[in-house]
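Dear Dr. K.,

Following up on our conversation at the group meeting, I've run the structure prediction for Small multidrug resistance protein from Haloterrigena salina JCM 13891. I'm pasting the input sequence below exactly as I used it, so you can double-check it against your construct before we proceed with anything downstream. Let me know if the numbering doesn't match what you have in your notebook.
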Amino acid sequence: MSWYLLVLAGLFEVGWAIGLGYSDGLSRPLPTLATVVSLVISMGLLALAVRDLPVGTAYAVWTGIGAVGTASLGIVLFDEPVSAARVGFLSVIVVGIVGLHLTGGH
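The predicted structure tokens came back this morning:
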């Protein structure tokens, strides 16, 4: 169950990171509210996950999901640059996340 909470926490991390882009420096009320809510949910779920998972593993997976998800959505939503190298390095992060899951113990 902790891994599911951790993945969900990572997805909410993507939500708040993308929300920052839409909030225009936290100056737009509705996107700012959505960003803050996503941040609180993400941290809360991460806190629940580390009850059973090693904090180093959980944090690395959480930030990895956030990094890959945010970079991927940045390409789609904000027309950020895409290249074979960028996709390759994001893939390396995914491999790291899977590896941590396989060796994470829980």
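Two things stood out to me. Residues 1-103 form one domain. The chain has a mean pLDDT of 95.

Best regards,
J.T.
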